[in-house]
Amino acid sequence: MATEVVASSGPTAPPADGGEISSPAMVSGPPMSARYNSPSLSRKPLLLSIEHPNAVSSHNKTAANSNSNSNNNNNNSRTPNFLTPLGSPIRRAIKMTKLDPQDAWLPITESRNGNALYAAFHTLCAGIGIQALVLPVAFTILGWTWGIISLTVAFVWQLYTFWILTNLHESSDNGIRYSRFLQLFNATFGERMGKIFALFPILYLSGGTCVALIVVGGSTTKLFYQIVCGGHGCTAKPLTTVEWYLVFTCAAVLLSQLPNLNSVAGVSLVGAATAIGYCTFMWCVSVTEGRLTGVSYERVKPNSNTEWFFGILNALGIVAFAFRGHNVTLEIQATMPSSEKKPSRVPMWRGIRGAYFIVALCLFPTAIAGYWAYGNKIPENGGMLTAIYAFHGRDTSQTILGLITLFVIINALSSFQIYGMPMFDDIESKFTARMKRPCPWWLRVIIRAMFGYGCFFVAVAIPFLGSLAGLIGGIAVPVTFAYPCLMWIKIKKPERFNFMWWLNWGLGISGILLTILLVAAGIYIVIDTGVEVSFFKPH
């Protein structure tokens, strides 16, 4: 349990009655899980005077023995000569939350020198993915008007929940920084609720995304090889799909040895640039080549009302899944220094705004130009990426096609580092909580290699996992659209029936209903179309 210690600004004056000097009062803080407590708002997460839990009690015992010893202890309890948790002047009496030494040992919080540019790089790399290329498929069901309206509403909605998470990251009341999404959810609703409603979506959005990236990256690496070799084969016996998965995994594991989230800022920059590149190339090629002959924009008419209803839900799910990254927002913000005068939410929000301005310039043209060029002929599996090769593979320069596939590969490698970092952090936190020391470098290498090759095993062993993506992904939708709004109400407690109260309740309930409907649609599609179960036989 976190506790608060009052640090005096100078030597304590003796009482008027000549009695003993009383020790600083202990004030209970909010109950927090030991391994997720991240209270430091300074660049350095450890304060010398309260580095160990027994420090205060030992000082109190010494103070009871003699006046001279108590004065020494008071000197030890003063604010250290660097930034305090709330950024107040060094010689001012403040309340300090006891700091968790694990924060200095874990990959997300061991470096706190990030800035708005780093935040923009990470957010861009995490926010644009291969799922954006399927947006034109949603338009075939929703049509022009409702497709654009749905995409716009989803964009504004998720941008608002980004703003909420950014403002809930740190509390000025108790100095706690919630550096992980699950930590904030547990502090708001309790650990039991967190295990039931938040643990699986967070694990899926991290580990499940890494598995999907191996599938996409490995398959695209195989395609890139075929383009470079001109379709003739550079060797007598080309690699199989599983072997290409392994090639991609080896590259991802090698890159994952960068120590912390701040250290992969350059990787995120490259990943963001390549994501912008392949989105721009695809919609530009589609517009340049023109509309296909006989293209139609008539909405697909299902055979029954049930198919029509679940088809619309499936389209809304495609739009909702196009936006991601909320599960790593607090982790990205945790890499920034923060103080009372310069809270981390300011540069973080500036970075998110810049990043999502660029995201909008990628997603909207991709969705609109893709639907304009291919209409109802857009392939359901792969979307724009498949359409480019299916309809323009012979007309388009092989250099352009090669660059598109290369950009997809690089972006997948970069995104793997962002989404894998929370998993590395969680695994290492179990070691540091048990051993009370940082994870040695050799063990960190083993942990990250085991995670990477574990994802490779799942990608190979369960190749039909993509068929269940709509069902499983629906469970993760509240992380983006519902949970931030409900946490805002619980923590900020807005006045009943005012605008913010109505807005957050409305969005929170709508997000939960959307989740239920998307899960129901996923179940219906699995039952209606079936799943080709084939273990260890990736296509």
Given helix and strand content, the structural type is mainly alpha
Beta-strand portion reads under 5%
Average pLDDT score = 81
Order of helices and strands: EEHHEHHHHHHHHHHHHHHH
The strand line-up of the biggest sheet is 2-1-3
- Fraction of residues in helices? 55-70%
Shape: globular
What does the largest sheet look like? 3 strands, antiparallel
Number of separate strands: 3
Characterise the protein shown here.
This protein has 539 residues and is mainly alpha-helical. Helices cover 61% and strands 2% of the residues. It has 17 helices and three strands. A three-stranded antiparallel beta sheet has the order 2-1-3, with no helix packed on it. Helix 4 packs across helix 9 and helix 5 (181-189) packs across helix 16 (483-492). It is globular and about 65 Å long. 45% of the residues are buried.
Topology diagram in text:
Blueprint (H helix, E strand, L loop, with lengths): L2 E5 L18 E3 L26 H11 L1 H11 L16 E4 L18 H12 L7 H34 L12 H9 L1 H38 L12 H15 L9 H25 L15 H17 L7 H5 L11 H30 L9 H9 L5 H38 L5 H21 L7 H13 L1 H10 L6 H31 L10
Antiparallel strand pairs: 1-2, 1-3
